[in-house]
Structure formats: structure tokens, C-alpha cells
Amino acid sequence: MSIRQASLTGAAAAPPTLPPEAVLALDEMEAQAHYNALAAQRIEAAIRTHMRQDLHYTYTLGGTRFDKPVLLDAGIALLMRMLRLVPRHRVELALREPAPVVAPDGGIAGHRLLIKYVVKAELWHIGPDGTERLVAEGLGSASSLETRHLYRWVTERHLPPGVDRATLPARTREVGGRRITEYRSVNPDPDDLDNTLIKVAAKRAEADAVRQLPGVLEACAVLPDVEMPQPSAGAAPPPAAEEARPSSEEEPSAQDMPAPAHQASGQQATAQAAPPPASGRRQPPRRDRSFDLAEASAQGKLVKIAQEVDPAVSWYITIARLLGLPSAERGMAAIREHWLGQGRSWQDALALAQERLASPGEERPPAPQDGHQGDTGREVKGA
């Protein structure tokens, strides 16, 4: 092997070196990703347990079917209550001025009073001790020139004088056992919409703020505005929609959380013993959500411990030092290789870290030396 080849081989084998601020940013990104996955799983569980289909959420909206639940106005309000979130609103724009109305033929049919509101909603979390914290913001608007507010459907005898019904859009519907024809006419009373418009703008702002919460967009489909048509009570859910959960491809995966060998074997045996589904269609595999939640919770507690132990150092470097892992300066890479890759779990790591911190003289874990080998709990305790 030539000197050039040897140098290239050594360079490829050397681990990449990142500045401390870059490592901290990557750790924060990874911790936030795990937090979002955990939040999505909790929200899915809340939808299945505490919400009713066609009241709080739906799978069919505007003729479109969704694989994930679509939260309706009542569902958004219930989710905010469950999360102890209080909305506070501020009117950003209040406008009242004449505006042209376009006729069906494209001409100007006259001028109407434009009433428009833009509202900002802030979601404040109220803690058990009464402390308040701003967690999300959203914007919403409503206008009297929107189609649903600008027009109304009336019978022929309620049309304004001099209006030719042949030029108006018409519809036929059954009322009281007889069929009637209605015509779409410009609403002659726009001032009656003032209260409705500001409330619609506020609800739209709340829905926009809820979209910003961790895990909401992962657990739910597109959140509709409050004034969108509600589904009928008899609307049937799509296949496998009763459980309000996405398919396996859409489920948020918690990385770096391998199950112990005995648990993995038990899950495999259970999967083999399960009877095939009644329908011929292949069903997606189901994940052990309780295990994922426990692992994500343990990892989150470890991150908090690492922040308290040494806030100036990357969280996962501190965790690797607490576990006594070799090459602890590699942070998450060392944890994957020497802990998770050896079949251990985040719950095992949390228990060991708490045991070390509870022992005298373990308040600040020292950085491991090059020759230190502390891969097991017994070696760490005896170090």
C-alpha cells in the first residue's frame, strides 16, 4: 500500500469532527423530532379515547376521504382544553368600506359594503400553579365578500323587485314533502354579518395556531376552517378508519429505540399466532405503541438530566459520560454503538444514570479517558 493510499484510508476511517455549537444544534433537532413523534402518538390516543367521529373529527370532508382524522371545530376546541390552552385574540385589521361586486357575466353589479376582520390568536398554556406560557400563534380572516356571506338562497317571492330570475343561479330542494326552487341573490343586509365575521376570523386563527403545536400535523390531516361544511351524521368512515390511526408508512417512528431481545421475540411469537384478517387485503403491521412511549419518555428524562448536569455540553455527550461509554465525545454515535446497539434500552440508561447521580461524588461525570472502558453497568458502578 502506498503512502497516499494509507493516508486516504486513515482519513476515511476517522470520525467527522464538528464544532460544539453544531453538535448541540443537531442534538436539539433530534430531541425535537422525538418529542414530535411522542406528541403525535399522544394526540392520536386522545382522539381515539375522548373524541367522537362526525362531532369532533371526520374522515370525509367536501367529497374527499382522508386516511387520518380531520379535526372539526369541536375537536379543535376539545384538544385545546385537554392541553390546558387558552386562546387570546387581538384584532389586527377591521375594515368597512364600499367594494365592487362582480356579476355572474363578469361585469360590475354595483358596490357593496366590505366588512373584513383579521384576527391574531395566541394559545397560552396555563400550568397547574397558574403560570402562563405562550406556545403558539395563528392568523385568521373573514370578509363579507366571501361567497357564503355575499349571497343567500331565497324563493322567487323574496327576490328584490326588478330582478330577472332567469339570470340567477338556481337550485331545487325538497322541503316538507314538496320541491321548491331557490335563487342565489345578493345579501341585502351585510351589517347583520358583523358579529359572525369576527367570530369566524377568530376561529380560523385558533385553527391556524393549533397547526403549530408539536405532533398535530403528524396525527391529523388538514385542519379545516370552522365554516367548512360539516359531514352528515350518517357518513361512513373509510376502510380501517375506526381506529383513527395512519398506516404504518405514515406513523411517526421513534428512532434509536430497539426492543430488548426477549421483548422482540415475544412480539414475533404474538404476530405469528395472530389470525389473518377476515378480508383478503393485507393489513399493515401494528407497532407496540406503549413501548415506544416509554422509551421516548425515558430519553426525554435523560435529556433533562443532561441539561441540569452540564448545560454547556451537548446533551448526548453528557449522557454517554454518565453511562461510562468509550468515546463519549461522539455523543449520540457512541450511544448507538455501545448502548443501543448492544440491545440495551433508554429505560436501562435512565435507571443507570439516576443510580450514578444518586451515588456520592457523581454530580459531574468526568470525561472518559482514551483507555477507559465503561460499557456495562457493573463497570460504571465500580469506576
Q: Could you tell me the number of beta strands?
A: 8
- How would the global form be characterised? elongated
Order of helices and strands: HHEEHEEEHEEEHHHHHHHH
* Structural class label: alpha+beta
The count of helical stretches stands at 12
Main beta sheet, described?
3 strands, antiparallel
Distance between the first and last residues' Cα: 41 Å
Residue share in helix: 25-40%
Key words describing this protein structure:
alpha+beta; three-stranded antiparallel beta sheet
Written account of the structure:
The chain is an alpha+beta fold. Among the domains are: 88-194, no CATH class; 288-382, no CATH class. Helix content is 38%, strand content 21%. It is built from twelve helices and eight strands. The protein has helices spanning 3-13, 20-50, 73-82, 147-150, 194-211, 216-219, 261-273, 289-309, 315-323, 332-338, 346-358, 377-382; strands spanning 57-61, 64-71, 85-102, 108-126, 132-143, 151-154, 170-175, 178-186. The strands form three sheets. The protein has a three-stranded antiparallel sheet. Helix 2 runs antiparallel to helix 8 (289-309), helix 8 packs across helix 9 (315-323) and helix 8 runs parallel beside helix 11. The longest helix is centred in the first third of the chain and has 31 residues, at 20-50. It is elongated and about 90 Å long. The two termini are 41 Å apart. The relative contact order is 0.12.
